[in-house]
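Lecture notes, part 5. Sequence design as translation. It can be helpful to think of inverse folding as translation between two languages: the language of shapes and the language of residues. The source text, in C-alpha coordinates, appears below.
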Protein backbone atom coordinates (compact mmCIF):
# COMPACT_ATOMS: atom_id res chain seq x y z
CA UNK A 1 0.00 0.00 0.00
CA UNK A 2 0.95 3.65 -0.22
CA UNK A 3 -0.02 6.30 2.38
CA UNK A 4 -2.48 8.95 1.24
CA UNK A 5 0.09 11.78 1.44
CA UNK A 6 2.45 9.96 -0.90
CA UNK A 7 5.19 9.49 1.71
CA UNK A 8 6.48 5.96 2.29
CA UNK A 9 5.86 4.18 5.55
CA UNK A 10 8.61 2.22 7.22
CA UNK A 11 8.84 -1.40 6.13
CA UNK A 12 7.88 -3.04 2.85
CA UNK A 13 5.30 -1.28 0.70
CA UNK A 14 4.34 -1.28 -2.98
CA UNK A 15 4.29 1.77 -5.25
CA UNK A 16 1.79 1.84 -8.13
CA UNK A 17 1.43 -1.95 -7.97
CA UNK A 18 4.88 -2.27 -9.53
CA UNK A 19 7.76 -1.32 -7.24
CA UNK A 20 8.29 -3.18 -3.95
CA UNK A 21 10.11 -0.73 -1.71
CA UNK A 22 11.86 -2.12 1.34
CA UNK A 23 12.95 1.15 2.97
CA UNK A 24 15.11 4.27 2.59
CA UNK A 25 18.49 3.78 0.98
CA UNK A 26 20.09 7.23 0.96
CA UNK A 27 19.37 10.92 0.67
CA UNK A 28 19.56 12.15 -2.89
CA UNK A 29 19.73 15.93 -3.27
CA UNK A 30 16.13 17.20 -3.26
CA UNK A 31 14.67 13.79 -2.41
CA UNK A 32 14.96 10.44 -0.71
CA UNK A 33 16.23 7.43 -2.67
CA UNK A 34 14.89 3.97 -1.90
CA UNK A 35 15.92 0.48 -2.97
CA UNK A 36 13.08 -1.40 -4.64
CA UNK A 37 12.27 -4.39 -6.84
CA UNK A 38 10.56 -3.86 -10.20
CA UNK A 39 7.81 -6.49 -10.36
CA UNK A 40 7.69 -6.23 -14.16
CA UNK A 41 11.33 -7.23 -14.64
CA UNK A 42 12.43 -8.65 -11.28
CA UNK A 43 15.37 -6.21 -11.25
CA UNK A 44 16.48 -4.11 -8.28
CA UNK A 45 15.94 -0.40 -8.98
CA UNK A 46 16.35 2.93 -7.20
CA UNK A 47 13.22 5.00 -6.56
CA UNK A 48 13.79 8.68 -5.88
CA UNK A 49 10.93 10.75 -4.47
CA UNK A 50 10.76 14.50 -4.67
CA UNK A 51 10.76 15.30 -0.97
CA UNK A 52 10.86 18.81 0.49
CA UNK A 53 13.72 19.46 2.88
CA UNK A 54 11.66 19.67 6.07
CA UNK A 55 10.77 16.06 6.78
CA UNK A 56 10.19 14.73 10.26
CA UNK A 57 12.00 11.72 11.72
CA UNK A 58 9.53 9.31 10.16
CA UNK A 59 10.21 10.71 6.69
CA UNK A 60 6.70 12.16 6.31
CA UNK A 61 6.37 15.26 4.18
CA UNK A 62 5.00 18.32 5.97
CA UNK A 63 4.37 20.45 2.87
CA UNK A 64 3.77 20.02 -0.84
CA UNK A 65 6.75 20.48 -3.18
CA UNK A 66 7.06 24.00 -4.56
CA UNK A 67 6.65 24.78 -8.23
CA UNK A 68 10.41 25.31 -8.62
CA UNK A 69 11.15 21.99 -6.90
CA UNK A 70 8.80 20.21 -9.26
CA UNK A 71 10.38 21.84 -12.30
CA UNK A 72 13.88 20.98 -11.13
CA UNK A 73 12.74 17.38 -10.58
CA UNK A 74 11.22 17.28 -14.05
CA UNK A 75 14.52 18.50 -15.47
CA UNK A 76 16.36 15.80 -13.51
CA UNK A 77 14.17 13.15 -15.16
CA UNK A 78 15.05 14.65 -18.54
CA UNK A 79 18.75 14.54 -17.67
CA UNK A 80 18.62 10.84 -16.76
CA UNK A 81 16.73 10.12 -19.97
CA UNK A 82 19.37 11.96 -22.00
CA UNK A 83 22.47 10.72 -20.17
CA UNK A 84 21.55 7.30 -18.76
CA UNK A 85 24.11 4.55 -19.43
CA UNK A 86 27.90 4.20 -19.08
CA UNK A 87 28.44 5.91 -15.76
CA UNK A 88 24.99 7.44 -15.27
CA UNK A 89 22.14 5.19 -14.03
CA UNK A 90 19.61 4.53 -16.77
CA UNK A 91 16.09 5.92 -16.37
CA UNK A 92 13.42 3.22 -15.93
CA UNK A 93 10.30 5.40 -15.57
CA UNK A 94 9.02 8.49 -13.83
CA UNK A 95 5.73 9.91 -12.57
CA UNK A 96 5.50 13.68 -12.18
CA UNK A 97 1.77 14.23 -11.66
CA UNK A 98 1.46 12.73 -8.16
CA UNK A 99 1.42 14.77 -4.94
CA UNK A 100 4.91 13.38 -4.38
CA UNK A 101 6.56 12.83 -7.80
CA UNK A 102 9.13 10.09 -8.27
CA UNK A 103 11.65 8.77 -10.76
CA UNK A 104 13.02 5.24 -11.07
CA UNK A 105 16.54 4.44 -12.26
CA UNK A 106 18.92 1.53 -12.51
CA UNK A 107 20.19 0.53 -9.03
CA UNK A 108 23.95 0.75 -8.44
CA UNK A 109 24.95 -1.84 -5.86
CA UNK A 110 27.85 -0.44 -3.86
CA UNK A 111 28.67 2.67 -1.84
CA UNK A 112 29.03 6.38 -2.45
CA UNK A 113 32.51 7.90 -2.17
CA UNK A 114 31.60 9.51 1.14
CA UNK A 115 31.00 6.03 2.62
CA UNK A 116 34.05 4.68 0.79
CA UNK A 117 36.34 7.29 2.36
CA UNK A 118 35.08 6.44 5.84
CA UNK A 119 36.49 2.90 5.56
CA UNK A 120 39.29 3.20 2.98
CA UNK A 121 42.48 5.19 2.50
CA UNK A 122 42.96 4.51 -1.20
CA UNK A 123 46.44 4.07 -2.67
CA UNK A 124 47.47 6.17 -5.65
CA UNK A 125 46.36 3.49 -8.15
CA UNK A 126 42.85 3.42 -6.67
CA UNK A 127 42.67 7.22 -6.66
CA UNK A 128 43.72 7.27 -10.31
CA UNK A 129 41.08 4.64 -11.16
CA UNK A 130 38.32 6.66 -9.51
CA UNK A 131 39.47 9.94 -11.06
CA UNK A 132 39.78 8.56 -14.59
CA UNK A 133 36.39 6.82 -14.51
CA UNK A 134 34.68 9.92 -13.09
CA UNK A 135 36.34 12.18 -15.66
CA UNK A 136 35.19 9.90 -18.51
CA UNK A 137 31.62 10.10 -17.24
CA UNK A 138 31.84 13.88 -16.99
CA UNK A 139 33.37 14.15 -20.46
CA UNK A 140 30.29 12.39 -21.82
CA UNK A 141 27.95 14.60 -19.76
CA UNK A 142 29.73 17.71 -21.00
CA UNK A 143 29.60 16.47 -24.59
CA UNK A 144 25.82 16.53 -24.19
CA UNK A 145 26.13 20.19 -23.17
CA UNK A 146 25.22 19.60 -19.52
CA UNK A 147 27.03 20.84 -16.40
CA UNK A 148 26.37 18.78 -13.26
CA UNK A 149 27.19 21.60 -10.76
CA UNK A 150 27.21 19.32 -7.70
CA UNK A 151 30.13 16.91 -8.12
CA UNK A 152 30.89 15.66 -4.61
CA UNK A 153 31.57 12.27 -2.94
CA UNK A 154 27.92 11.77 -1.99
CA UNK A 155 26.93 11.95 -5.68
CA UNK A 156 29.61 9.55 -6.91
CA UNK A 157 28.68 5.87 -6.51
CA UNK A 158 31.28 3.10 -6.55
CA UNK A 159 29.75 -0.23 -7.52
CA UNK A 160 30.88 -3.52 -6.02
CA UNK A 161 32.38 -4.26 -9.44
CA UNK A 162 34.58 -1.15 -9.11
CA UNK A 163 32.75 0.99 -11.67
CA UNK A 164 32.11 4.68 -10.97
CA UNK A 165 28.71 6.30 -11.53
CA UNK A 166 27.55 9.92 -11.27
CA UNK A 167 24.09 10.57 -9.81
CA UNK A 168 21.78 13.37 -8.66
CA UNK A 169 21.24 15.73 -11.58
CA UNK A 170 18.78 17.85 -9.59
CA UNK A 171 20.68 21.09 -10.15
CA UNK A 172 22.38 20.16 -13.44
CA UNK A 173 22.07 22.76 -16.19
CA UNK A 174 22.19 22.71 -19.97
CA UNK A 175 25.09 24.76 -21.33
CA UNK A 176 22.64 27.32 -22.65
CA UNK A 177 22.46 30.94 -21.47
CA UNK A 178 18.68 30.89 -22.02
CA UNK A 179 18.09 27.80 -19.87
CA UNK A 180 15.73 28.33 -16.93
CA UNK A 181 17.31 27.80 -13.52
CA UNK A 182 14.38 26.50 -11.42
CA UNK A 183 16.28 27.52 -8.29
CA UNK A 184 15.42 30.00 -5.60
CA UNK A 185 18.14 32.10 -4.04
CA UNK A 186 21.62 30.65 -4.11
CA UNK A 187 22.48 27.54 -6.08
CA UNK A 188 22.16 24.43 -3.93
CA UNK A 189 25.17 22.19 -3.46
CA UNK A 190 27.95 21.34 -1.03
CA UNK A 191 30.25 24.24 -0.15
CA UNK A 192 33.25 21.90 0.25
CA UNK A 193 33.23 21.03 -3.47
CA UNK A 194 31.70 24.10 -5.15
CA UNK A 195 33.70 26.05 -7.70
CA UNK A 196 34.33 29.73 -6.88
CA UNK A 197 32.20 30.91 -9.80
CA UNK A 198 29.19 28.98 -8.48
CA UNK A 199 29.68 30.38 -4.98
CA UNK A 200 29.86 33.89 -6.46
CA UNK A 201 26.53 33.39 -8.24
CA UNK A 202 27.64 32.79 -11.85
CA UNK A 203 24.40 32.04 -13.73
CA UNK A 204 26.08 30.04 -16.47
CA UNK A 205 29.02 28.07 -15.05
CA UNK A 206 30.88 26.01 -17.61
CA UNK A 207 32.15 22.42 -17.52
CA UNK A 208 35.28 23.57 -15.68
CA UNK A 209 33.08 24.06 -12.59
CA UNK A 210 32.69 20.26 -12.51
CA UNK A 211 36.47 19.90 -12.95
CA UNK A 212 36.90 21.93 -9.76
CA UNK A 213 34.58 19.52 -7.92
CA UNK A 214 36.61 16.55 -9.17
CA UNK A 215 39.75 18.36 -8.01
CA UNK A 216 38.30 18.62 -4.49
CA UNK A 217 37.47 14.90 -4.55
CA UNK A 218 40.94 13.90 -5.80
CA UNK A 219 42.53 16.12 -3.14
CA UNK A 220 40.47 14.29 -0.50
CA UNK A 221 41.25 10.85 -1.92
CA UNK A 222 44.99 11.57 -1.84
CA UNK A 223 45.27 13.43 1.47
CA UNK A 224 42.29 12.14 3.47
CA UNK A 225 41.17 15.70 4.20
CA UNK A 226 39.10 18.47 2.66
CA UNK A 227 40.77 21.22 0.65
CA UNK A 228 39.75 23.72 3.32
CA UNK A 229 39.10 22.84 6.96
CA UNK A 230 35.60 21.53 7.58
CA UNK A 231 35.42 23.01 11.08
CA UNK A 232 35.11 26.59 9.81
CA UNK A 233 31.71 28.22 9.40
CA UNK A 234 30.20 28.08 5.92
CA UNK A 235 30.91 31.61 4.79
CA UNK A 236 34.60 31.29 5.73
CA UNK A 237 34.92 28.05 3.74
CA UNK A 238 33.25 29.76 0.78
CA UNK A 239 35.65 32.66 1.08
CA UNK A 240 38.60 30.26 1.10
CA UNK A 241 37.34 28.61 -2.09
CA UNK A 242 37.02 32.02 -3.74
CA UNK A 243 40.21 33.68 -2.47
CA UNK A 244 42.70 31.31 -0.79
CA UNK A 245 45.04 29.25 -3.01
CA UNK A 246 44.51 25.54 -2.39
CA UNK A 247 47.46 23.89 -0.65
CA UNK A 248 49.38 21.45 -2.85
CA UNK A 249 48.71 17.78 -2.11
CA UNK A 250 52.45 17.32 -1.63
CA UNK A 251 52.12 19.33 1.59
CA UNK A 252 50.34 16.34 3.14
CA UNK A 253 51.63 13.32 1.19
CA UNK A 254 55.24 12.62 0.24
CA UNK A 255 56.50 10.89 -2.88
CA UNK A 256 53.78 11.95 -5.30
CA UNK A 257 54.75 12.47 -8.94
CA UNK A 258 55.22 16.15 -9.75
CA UNK A 259 52.71 15.81 -12.60
CA UNK A 260 49.99 14.70 -10.16
CA UNK A 261 50.74 17.54 -7.74
CA UNK A 262 50.64 20.04 -10.59
CA UNK A 263 47.43 18.79 -12.21
CA UNK A 264 45.51 18.80 -8.91
CA UNK A 265 46.67 22.36 -8.26
CA UNK A 266 45.47 23.39 -11.72
CA UNK A 267 42.09 21.65 -11.17
CA UNK A 268 41.64 23.83 -8.07
CA UNK A 269 42.48 27.09 -9.83
CA UNK A 270 40.23 30.05 -8.97
CA UNK A 271 40.20 31.04 -12.65
CA UNK A 272 38.03 28.60 -14.67
CA UNK A 273 40.09 29.27 -17.81
CA UNK A 274 43.22 27.88 -16.11
CA UNK A 275 41.71 24.52 -15.18
CA UNK A 276 42.68 21.52 -17.34
CA UNK A 277 40.27 19.54 -19.47
CA UNK A 278 39.21 16.00 -18.44
CA UNK A 279 41.43 14.66 -21.22
CA UNK A 280 44.51 16.50 -19.85
CA UNK A 281 43.84 15.19 -16.35
CA UNK A 282 43.36 11.63 -17.57
CA UNK A 283 46.69 11.79 -19.42
CA UNK A 284 48.43 12.52 -16.09
CA UNK A 285 46.69 9.74 -14.16
CA UNK A 286 46.80 7.11 -16.93
CA UNK A 287 50.38 5.92 -16.13
CA UNK A 288 49.26 5.20 -12.55
CA UNK A 289 46.42 2.90 -13.59
CA UNK A 290 46.85 -0.88 -13.18
CA UNK A 291 47.00 -3.04 -16.28
CA UNK A 292 45.03 -6.20 -17.07
CA UNK A 293 46.31 -9.05 -14.91
CA UNK A 294 47.97 -6.83 -12.29
CA UNK A 295 47.41 -7.82 -8.63
CA UNK A 296 45.13 -5.77 -6.39
CA UNK A 297 46.85 -2.69 -4.95
CA UNK A 298 48.11 -2.65 -1.40
CA UNK A 299 46.34 -1.64 0.74
CA UNK A 300 43.25 -3.11 -0.91
CA UNK A 301 39.92 -1.27 -1.06
CA UNK A 302 36.33 -2.42 -0.79
CA UNK A 303 34.85 -1.78 -3.30
CA UNK A 304 37.98 -1.90 -5.46
CA UNK A 305 37.97 0.81 -8.18
CA UNK A 306 41.00 -0.75 -9.86
CA UNK A 307 39.10 -3.96 -10.65
CA UNK A 308 37.70 -2.81 -14.05
CA UNK A 309 41.24 -1.92 -15.20
CA UNK A 310 42.84 -5.10 -13.82
CA UNK A 311 40.12 -7.21 -15.43
CA UNK A 312 40.43 -5.37 -18.73
CA UNK A 313 36.79 -4.26 -18.69
CA UNK A 314 37.03 -0.54 -17.87
CA UNK A 315 35.03 1.52 -20.39
CA UNK A 316 37.21 3.82 -22.44
CA UNK A 317 36.50 7.46 -23.25
CA UNK A 318 33.03 7.80 -24.74
CA UNK A 319 32.76 9.75 -28.00
CA UNK A 320 30.64 12.87 -27.88
CA UNK A 321 27.10 12.37 -29.03
CA UNK A 322 24.76 14.99 -30.43
CA UNK A 323 22.67 16.93 -27.98
CA UNK A 324 19.73 17.84 -30.11
CA UNK A 325 17.58 15.09 -31.50
CA UNK A 326 17.00 15.22 -35.20
CA UNK A 327 13.80 16.94 -36.14
CA UNK A 328 11.42 14.29 -37.46
CA UNK A 329 10.81 14.42 -41.16
CA UNK A 330 7.35 15.67 -41.89
CA UNK A 331 5.47 16.37 -45.06
CA UNK A 332 4.96 20.10 -45.46
CA UNK A 333 1.40 21.15 -46.11
CA UNK A 334 0.39 22.24 -49.56
CA UNK A 335 0.57 25.95 -50.28
CA UNK A 336 -3.19 26.33 -49.95
CA UNK A 337 -2.92 25.27 -46.32
CA UNK A 338 -4.17 22.32 -44.27
CA UNK A 339 -7.80 21.31 -44.02
CA UNK A 340 -9.78 22.27 -40.94
CA UNK A 341 -10.11 18.65 -39.84
CA UNK A 342 -6.35 18.07 -40.24
CA UNK A 343 -5.50 21.07 -38.05
CA UNK A 344 -8.00 20.10 -35.36
CA UNK A 345 -6.82 16.50 -35.28
CA UNK A 346 -3.18 17.62 -35.04
CA UNK A 347 -4.05 20.10 -32.28
CA UNK A 348 -5.59 17.25 -30.30
CA UNK A 349 -2.69 14.85 -30.80
CA UNK A 350 -0.11 17.50 -29.96
CA UNK A 351 -2.07 18.55 -26.86
CA UNK A 352 -2.08 14.92 -25.73
CA UNK A 353 1.72 14.80 -26.04
CA UNK A 354 1.97 17.95 -23.92
CA UNK A 355 -0.42 16.56 -21.29
CA UNK A 356 1.77 13.46 -21.04
CA UNK A 357 4.80 15.70 -20.54
CA UNK A 358 6.56 14.46 -23.66
CA UNK A 359 6.22 16.86 -26.62
CA UNK A 360 7.22 15.00 -29.76
CA UNK A 361 6.52 14.54 -33.44
CA UNK A 362 2.95 15.90 -33.37
CA UNK A 363 4.06 19.12 -31.68
CA UNK A 364 6.86 19.44 -34.22
CA UNK A 365 4.43 18.94 -37.10
CA UNK A 366 1.93 21.39 -35.64
CA UNK A 367 4.63 24.07 -35.35
CA UNK A 368 5.48 23.58 -39.03
CA UNK A 369 1.82 23.61 -40.07
CA UNK A 370 0.75 26.78 -38.24
CA UNK A 371 2.25 29.35 -40.69
CA UNK A 372 0.24 27.85 -43.56
CA UNK A 373 -2.87 27.71 -41.36
CA UNK A 374 -2.41 31.39 -40.46
CA UNK A 375 -2.19 32.36 -44.13
CA UNK A 376 -5.35 30.38 -44.87
CA UNK A 377 -7.51 31.45 -41.90
CA UNK A 378 -5.66 34.42 -40.28
CA UNK A 379 -3.93 34.65 -36.89
CA UNK A 380 -7.24 35.27 -35.09
CA UNK A 381 -8.81 31.93 -36.10
CA UNK A 382 -9.86 29.83 -33.10
CA UNK A 383 -8.08 26.66 -34.24
CA UNK A 384 -4.93 28.59 -35.10
CA UNK A 385 -4.94 30.19 -31.64
CA UNK A 386 -5.49 26.79 -30.03
CA UNK A 387 -2.49 25.46 -31.96
CA UNK A 388 -0.37 28.42 -30.83
CA UNK A 389 -1.26 27.63 -27.21
CA UNK A 390 -0.34 23.97 -27.61
CA UNK A 391 3.07 24.91 -29.01
CA UNK A 392 3.60 27.50 -26.27
CA UNK A 393 2.70 24.93 -23.60
CA UNK A 394 5.15 22.47 -25.16
CA UNK A 395 7.93 25.05 -25.01
CA UNK A 396 7.05 25.90 -21.40
CA UNK A 397 7.25 22.35 -20.06
CA UNK A 398 10.61 21.83 -21.78
CA UNK A 399 12.00 24.98 -20.16
CA UNK A 400 12.13 27.16 -23.31
CA UNK A 401 10.56 30.19 -21.64
CA UNK A 402 11.42 32.65 -24.41
CA UNK A 403 9.60 30.66 -27.12
CA UNK A 404 6.72 29.95 -24.72
CA UNK A 405 6.34 33.61 -23.73
CA UNK A 406 6.37 34.72 -27.37
CA UNK A 407 3.63 32.22 -28.23
CA UNK A 408 1.44 33.21 -25.30
CA UNK A 409 1.76 36.92 -26.09
CA UNK A 410 0.74 36.34 -29.73
CA UNK A 411 -2.49 34.73 -28.52
CA UNK A 412 -3.13 37.51 -26.00
CA UNK A 413 -2.67 40.20 -28.67
CA UNK A 414 -5.17 38.50 -30.98
CA UNK A 415 -7.83 38.06 -28.30
CA UNK A 416 -7.72 41.38 -26.47
CA UNK A 417 -10.01 43.01 -25.53
CA UNK A 418 -11.75 40.15 -23.73
CA UNK A 419 -13.98 38.17 -26.12
CA UNK A 420 -17.53 37.33 -25.07
CA UNK A 421 -17.54 33.79 -26.51
CA UNK A 422 -16.66 31.27 -23.81
CA UNK A 423 -14.23 29.16 -25.94
CA UNK A 424 -12.20 32.21 -26.96
CA UNK A 425 -12.33 33.56 -23.40
CA UNK A 426 -10.84 30.28 -22.15
CA UNK A 427 -8.03 30.57 -24.68
CA UNK A 428 -7.25 34.08 -23.43
CA UNK A 429 -7.24 32.93 -19.80
CA UNK A 430 -4.80 30.13 -20.64
CA UNK A 431 -2.57 32.47 -22.65
CA UNK A 432 -2.46 35.06 -19.86
CA UNK A 433 -1.67 32.42 -17.25
CA UNK A 434 1.11 31.02 -19.42
CA UNK A 435 2.55 34.47 -20.05
CA UNK A 436 2.40 35.18 -16.31
CA UNK A 437 4.37 32.02 -15.48
CA UNK A 438 7.04 32.98 -18.01
CA UNK A 439 7.47 36.34 -16.28
CA UNK A 440 7.30 35.33 -12.60
CA UNK A 441 11.02 35.06 -11.92
CA UNK A 442 11.83 38.22 -13.88
CA UNK A 443 9.44 40.35 -11.76
CA UNK A 444 8.88 42.71 -14.70
CA UNK A 445 6.98 45.68 -13.21
CA UNK A 446 4.30 43.47 -11.72
CA UNK A 447 3.22 42.24 -15.15
CA UNK A 448 3.08 38.60 -14.05
CA UNK A 449 0.82 39.48 -11.12
CA UNK A 450 -1.43 41.61 -13.34
CA UNK A 451 -1.87 38.85 -15.91
CA UNK A 452 -2.54 36.22 -13.26
CA UNK A 453 -5.00 38.40 -11.29
CA UNK A 454 -7.05 39.06 -14.43
CA UNK A 455 -7.23 35.35 -15.20
CA UNK A 456 -8.13 34.49 -11.60
CA UNK A 457 -10.97 37.06 -11.63
CA UNK A 458 -12.39 35.58 -14.84
CA UNK A 459 -12.30 32.07 -13.37
CA UNK A 460 -13.98 33.32 -10.18
CA UNK A 461 -16.80 34.79 -12.28
CA UNK A 462 -17.21 31.44 -14.06
CA UNK A 463 -17.57 29.66 -10.72
CA UNK A 464 -18.28 25.94 -11.05
CA UNK A 465 -18.31 26.22 -14.84
CA UNK A 466 -14.60 27.13 -14.91
CA UNK A 467 -12.59 24.48 -16.78
CA UNK A 468 -10.74 22.28 -14.21
CA UNK A 469 -7.57 22.40 -16.29
CA UNK A 470 -7.48 26.21 -16.12
CA UNK A 471 -8.22 26.16 -12.39
CA UNK A 472 -5.24 23.86 -11.84
CA UNK A 473 -3.02 26.10 -13.94
CA UNK A 474 -4.21 29.20 -12.08
CA UNK A 475 -3.55 27.59 -8.70
CA UNK A 476 -0.06 26.53 -9.78
CA UNK A 477 0.97 29.93 -11.15
CA UNK A 478 -0.53 31.64 -8.09
CA UNK A 479 1.52 29.40 -5.80
CA UNK A 480 4.58 30.22 -7.89
CA UNK A 481 3.91 33.96 -7.44
CA UNK A 482 3.51 33.45 -3.69
CA UNK A 483 6.89 31.71 -3.55
CA UNK A 484 8.45 34.70 -5.29
CA UNK A 485 7.26 37.17 -2.65
CA UNK A 486 3.73 37.98 -3.91
CA UNK A 487 1.85 36.03 -1.23
CA UNK A 488 0.00 39.08 0.12
CA UNK A 489 -1.30 39.91 -3.35
CA UNK A 490 -2.42 36.43 -4.35
CA UNK A 491 -3.53 34.65 -1.16
CA UNK A 492 -7.08 36.04 -1.12
CA UNK A 493 -7.77 35.10 -4.76
CA UNK A 494 -6.19 31.67 -4.27
CA UNK A 495 -8.48 30.95 -1.33
CA UNK A 496 -11.59 32.00 -3.26
CA UNK A 497 -10.84 30.05 -6.45
CA UNK A 498 -13.18 27.07 -6.91
CA UNK A 499 -11.68 23.75 -5.85
CA UNK A 500 -11.91 20.70 -8.07
Amino acid sequence: MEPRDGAPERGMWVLDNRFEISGPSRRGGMGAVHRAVDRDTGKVVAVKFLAPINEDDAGLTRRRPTVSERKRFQRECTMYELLGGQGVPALVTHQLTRPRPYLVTEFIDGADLNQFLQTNRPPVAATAAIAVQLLRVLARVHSCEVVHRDVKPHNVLLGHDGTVHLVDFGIALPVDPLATRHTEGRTPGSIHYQAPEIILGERQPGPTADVYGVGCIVFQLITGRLVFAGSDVDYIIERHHCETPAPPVSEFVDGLPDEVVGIVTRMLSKDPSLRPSPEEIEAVFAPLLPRPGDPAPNPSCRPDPTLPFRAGGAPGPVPARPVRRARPRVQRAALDGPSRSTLRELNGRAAEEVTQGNPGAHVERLALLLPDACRKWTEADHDVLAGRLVCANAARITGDWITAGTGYRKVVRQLEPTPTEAPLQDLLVEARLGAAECLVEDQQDGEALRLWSWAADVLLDKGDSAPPRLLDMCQEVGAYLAEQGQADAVDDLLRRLPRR
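The translated text above is only one of many valid answers, since several sequences can fold into similar shapes. Residues 1-10, 53-62, 177-187, 320-335 have pLDDT under 50 and may be disordered.
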